[in-house]
Amino acid sequence: MLKLTEHEKAMLDGKMGKFKQKAMEFNVRYAKVLGAEEFCEVSRTTFFIGAQHYLDCYRHGEEYKKIFSEFYLCSDEEIELGEMAPECKVQTCAASCDMWNCDKTHLSKEYSDKNKDYTEAARKMGVKIVESCTPYYVGWIPLMGEHFLSTESSNVVISNSFFGAYGNSDGVEAAVCAAITGRTPKWGMHIKENRYADCLV
């Protein structure tokens, strides 16, 4: 049985807007699949956002809120974009392309412009545009015991081991919805009892 706090219920009921509601609906579905009994508060996230190649199915010029709603919120309903959770430090992972020299890297101007449009939309939502797959080199350093989400594999390893923070290797949708709500299902490496070694090397 999934337990929700009053704050989480308010998000799920739409009292904090449709943007947070849709993200929380995703979180609830994710929690049920994982068998999580509650959520944990997330203080940091990193994720891929921009004109990633898996978004090539969308034409440049399509409403970004349609793209964001379908791909990141897993919603057929087109949602007005809002802000990330203020308690969560959110920044981008590796960029999908060179942000400044598309001609030198043989990328089309159309693709470069699309990426700039997408990242600017993310910036307006409160995402720090860093474009680094090593966020711990640019100030994104979780404290021991903090809960985080990251789509960057090396960051998951470093943050769990070296920094002693709590997080799993999650997908971009889970990371985005955690950033919007400040919540993620409490499962896997978010649970202290799961963090002890069970073999000797």
Q: In total, how many beta strands?
A: 5
- The structural domain count equals 1
Second CATH tier, the architecture: 2-Layer Sandwich
Content-based structural category: alpha/beta
Series of H and E elements: HHEEHEHEHHE
State the distance separating the first and last CA atoms: 37 Å
Q: How much is the average pLDDT?
A: 91
Under the CATH scheme, which class? Alpha Beta
Q: DSSP helix count?
A: 6
Strand order of the largest sheet: 3-2-4
User: Helical amount among residues, as a percent range?
Assistant: 25-40%
Profile the largest sheet: 3 strands, parallel
Shape, please?
globular
Please tell me how large the radius of gyration is: 17 Å
Low-pLDDT parts are none
Estimate what percentage of residues fall within beta strands.
Answer: 5-15%
Instruction: Using the coordinates shown, work out and report the CATH topology.
Output: Aconitase, domain 3
Topology:
Blueprint: H1 6-12, H2 18-34, E1 39-41, E2 44-47, H3 64-71, E3 89-92, H4 109-124, E4 148-150, H5 153-161, H6 172-181, E5 183-185
Parallel strand pairs: 2-3, 2-4
Antiparallel strand pairs: 1-5
Helix pairs in contact: 1-2, 2-6
